[in-house]
Please model this.
Amino acid sequence: MARILSIDFGRKRTGIAVTDTLKIIAGGLATVPTGELLSFLMHYFEQEDVELVVIGLPRQMNNVPSENMRYIEPFVVQFKKQFPKMPIVYFDERFTSSLAHRVMLDGGLKKKDRQNKALVDEISATIILQDYLESKQYKERL
Model:
Protein backbone atom coordinates (compact mmCIF):
# COMPACT_ATOMS: atom_id res chain seq x y z
CA MET A 1 0.00 0.00 0.00
CA ALA A 2 1.14 3.50 -0.80
CA ARG A 3 2.09 6.22 1.65
CA ILE A 4 1.37 9.94 1.76
CA LEU A 5 4.36 12.24 2.17
CA SER A 6 4.32 15.80 3.50
CA ILE A 7 6.75 18.63 3.04
CA ASP A 8 7.32 21.60 5.34
CA PHE A 9 9.30 23.65 2.84
CA GLY A 10 11.91 26.10 4.08
CA ARG A 11 14.53 28.21 2.35
CA LYS A 12 17.39 26.41 4.13
CA ARG A 13 15.92 23.16 5.42
CA THR A 14 12.82 21.15 4.62
CA GLY A 15 11.04 18.84 7.00
CA ILE A 16 9.54 15.65 5.61
CA ALA A 17 7.02 13.26 7.12
CA VAL A 18 5.24 10.15 5.82
CA THR A 19 2.29 8.03 6.78
CA ASP A 20 2.37 4.37 7.62
CA THR A 21 1.20 2.15 4.75
CA LEU A 22 -2.36 2.13 6.10
CA LYS A 23 -2.35 5.94 6.08
CA ILE A 24 -3.42 6.18 9.70
CA ILE A 25 -0.44 7.78 11.45
CA ALA A 26 2.04 10.42 10.32
CA GLY A 27 5.66 10.14 11.40
CA GLY A 28 8.73 12.26 10.86
CA LEU A 29 11.05 11.03 8.13
CA ALA A 30 13.88 13.55 7.82
CA THR A 31 15.00 17.12 7.53
CA VAL A 32 17.09 17.77 4.45
CA PRO A 33 18.87 20.81 3.06
CA THR A 34 16.40 22.36 0.64
CA GLY A 35 18.95 22.28 -2.19
CA GLU A 36 19.04 18.48 -1.88
CA LEU A 37 15.28 18.00 -1.56
CA LEU A 38 14.48 16.82 -5.10
CA SER A 39 17.34 14.34 -5.02
CA PHE A 40 16.22 13.04 -1.63
CA LEU A 41 12.64 12.62 -2.90
CA MET A 42 13.81 10.82 -6.05
CA HIS A 43 15.66 8.25 -3.95
CA TYR A 44 12.77 7.90 -1.53
CA PHE A 45 10.20 7.43 -4.33
CA GLU A 46 12.41 4.69 -5.81
CA GLN A 47 12.28 2.78 -2.51
CA GLU A 48 8.76 3.53 -1.28
CA ASP A 49 5.37 3.71 -2.96
CA VAL A 50 3.98 7.22 -2.45
CA GLU A 51 0.55 8.14 -3.78
CA LEU A 52 0.33 11.81 -2.78
CA VAL A 53 2.51 14.69 -1.61
CA VAL A 54 1.09 17.26 0.80
CA ILE A 55 2.89 20.59 0.82
CA GLY A 56 2.47 23.01 3.68
CA LEU A 57 0.69 26.15 2.51
CA PRO A 58 2.01 29.18 4.37
CA ARG A 59 -0.80 31.63 5.10
CA GLN A 60 -1.15 34.73 7.19
CA MET A 61 -3.96 35.17 9.70
CA ASN A 62 -6.09 36.93 7.05
CA ASN A 63 -5.82 33.82 4.82
CA VAL A 64 -3.45 35.52 2.35
CA PRO A 65 -0.43 33.41 1.36
CA SER A 66 2.69 34.51 3.25
CA GLU A 67 5.92 35.63 1.61
CA ASN A 68 7.36 32.10 1.84
CA MET A 69 4.98 31.10 -0.96
CA ARG A 70 7.31 32.78 -3.45
CA TYR A 71 9.91 30.13 -2.59
CA ILE A 72 7.50 27.22 -2.61
CA GLU A 73 6.02 27.89 -6.06
CA PRO A 74 9.34 27.48 -7.96
CA PHE A 75 9.97 24.26 -6.04
CA VAL A 76 6.54 22.94 -7.03
CA VAL A 77 7.26 23.75 -10.69
CA GLN A 78 10.52 21.77 -10.49
CA PHE A 79 8.79 18.96 -8.60
CA LYS A 80 6.09 18.65 -11.27
CA LYS A 81 8.74 18.49 -14.00
CA GLN A 82 10.66 15.76 -12.21
CA PHE A 83 7.60 13.82 -10.97
CA PRO A 84 4.81 14.67 -13.44
CA LYS A 85 2.50 11.86 -12.31
CA MET A 86 2.75 12.52 -8.57
CA PRO A 87 -0.31 14.38 -7.27
CA ILE A 88 0.25 17.35 -4.97
CA VAL A 89 -2.10 19.09 -2.56
CA TYR A 90 -1.47 22.16 -0.47
CA PHE A 91 -2.55 22.12 3.15
CA ASP A 92 -2.63 25.00 5.62
CA GLU A 93 0.49 25.05 7.77
CA ARG A 94 -0.36 27.95 10.09
CA PHE A 95 0.89 27.49 13.64
CA THR A 96 2.77 24.26 12.90
CA SER A 97 6.10 25.64 14.15
CA SER A 98 4.45 26.81 17.37
CA LEU A 99 2.76 23.44 17.76
CA ALA A 100 6.07 21.69 17.09
CA HIS A 101 7.71 23.66 19.89
CA ARG A 102 4.80 22.77 22.18
CA VAL A 103 5.14 19.07 21.31
CA MET A 104 8.85 19.23 22.10
CA LEU A 105 8.19 20.98 25.40
CA ASP A 106 5.40 18.56 26.36
CA GLY A 107 7.65 15.67 25.37
CA GLY A 108 10.20 16.76 27.95
CA LEU A 109 12.99 17.65 25.53
CA LYS A 110 15.79 19.69 27.01
CA LYS A 111 16.20 23.30 25.96
CA LYS A 112 19.19 22.51 23.75
CA ASP A 113 17.19 19.83 21.88
CA ARG A 114 14.22 22.20 21.48
CA GLN A 115 16.53 24.65 19.72
CA ASN A 116 17.27 22.07 17.02
CA LYS A 117 15.61 23.73 14.00
CA ALA A 118 15.88 20.58 11.90
CA LEU A 119 13.82 18.70 14.48
CA VAL A 120 11.24 21.52 14.52
CA ASP A 121 10.93 21.25 10.71
CA GLU A 122 10.44 17.49 10.83
CA ILE A 123 7.83 17.74 13.58
CA SER A 124 6.09 20.53 11.65
CA ALA A 125 5.88 18.29 8.57
CA THR A 126 4.42 15.57 10.78
CA ILE A 127 1.79 17.94 12.18
CA ILE A 128 0.86 19.09 8.65
CA LEU A 129 0.43 15.49 7.55
CA GLN A 130 -1.52 14.37 10.61
CA ASP A 131 -3.82 17.39 10.29
CA TYR A 132 -4.31 16.55 6.62
CA LEU A 133 -5.22 12.94 7.50
CA GLU A 134 -7.82 14.22 9.96
CA SER A 135 -9.23 16.80 7.54
CA LYS A 136 -12.39 16.81 5.48
CA GLN A 137 -10.19 17.38 2.40
CA TYR A 138 -8.53 13.97 2.89
CA LYS A 139 -11.74 12.18 3.73
CA GLU A 140 -13.29 13.47 0.50
CA ARG A 141 -10.43 11.82 -1.47
CA LEU A 142 -11.33 8.43 -0.02
Notes: The mean pLDDT is 87.
